[in-house]
From TrEMBL:
It is a multi-pass membrane protein. This is Membrane protein. InterPro entries: DUF202 (IPR003807), IM_YidH-like (IPR052053). The keyword Transcription does not apply. It comes from Desmospora profundinema. Coiled coil: none annotated. The keyword Transport does not apply. It holds the Pfam family DUF202. Residues 14-85 form the DUF202 domain. The chain crosses the membrane at residues 21-40, 60-78, 99-119. The lineage of its organism: Bacteria, Bacillati, Bacillota, Bacilli, Bacillales. It is found in: Cell membrane. Keywords: Cell membrane, Membrane, Transmembrane, Transmembrane helix.
Length: 120
């Protein structure tokens, strides 16, 4: 029985690299969500009295980090599918806009952490 070569098998290294990148994005998303959730939770477990603005910032850190995490998972999935198609069509172009958007999102989260540390 003669096995026929698929389009995916021609570019197996590229597809495997694409999968590794996808899984790295997923790990990053889970880490961002976990750090935000646990830092907000830690704030509310460690405070004995109402601290005003620091409570709001801690809440925002949790919400923003979970939002960034979900958006990262969505972006990673869509990006994986687009790259998979473009690898097979030999029309792949490395995107740079995604890095700018996610860098800005993480920068925003870092600013929230900084504000939290200032007001605690």
């Amino acid at each position: 029985m003669d096995k026929q070569q698929t389009v995916d098998s021609k570019y197996i290294q590229q597809h495997l690299a694409n999968e590794r990148t996808y899984l790295a994005w997923i790990r990053t998303a889970l880490t961002i969500m976990g750090i935000g959730y646990f830092s907000a939770k830690l704030h509310f477990l460690s405070t004995i009295y109402f601290k005003g603005i620091s409570d709001h910032i801690a809440q925002m850190i949790g919400q923003v980090s979970i939002g960034i995490g979900f958006a990262t998972i969505l972006y990673a999935t869509v990006s994986y599918m687009i790259k998979r198609k473009r690898i097979n069509e030999q029309t792949f172009v490395s995107p740079s806009y995604g890095l700018i958007v996610w860098s800005f999102a993480v920068f925003t989260l870092c600013i929230l952490f900084l504000l939290y540390l200032i007001y605690v």
